[in-house]
Amino acid sequence: MLQCRDIPDRANAYIDREGSMASLAAVALHLTACTNCRRYMRGLRAVRRLAAASFRAESPDAALAALGLGDRSNTEPDQGA
After folding, report:
1. 23 and 6 in contact (C-beta within 8 Å)?
2. CA neighbor of 36 nearest in space, from 67, 6, 15
3. Model pTM?
4. Cα dihedral value 16, 20, 21, 22, nearest 10
5. Is 48 helix (H, G, I), strand (E, B) or coil?
6. CA-only gyration radius of the chain, Å
7. Which Pfam families does the UniProt record give (predicted)?
């Protein structure tokens, strides 16, 4: 049976349903018995959902502006003058 220290290394694969059936079953079995690891997995799922939502919600222009790389046309010298 897995121990708590094994869960962080296997958590993302478990959520993504990647890996062998034996590995996924071992994580599932541990989660049925361990409240702390179930709490860890809930937190990880929440973080992944929030991260995915933030990438979907942010437009490319907003991302560039946040990086200080926004509309560069305002910083170019005026070549018409």
Report:
1. no
2. 6
3. 0.66
4. -120
5. helix
6. 22
7. zf-HC2
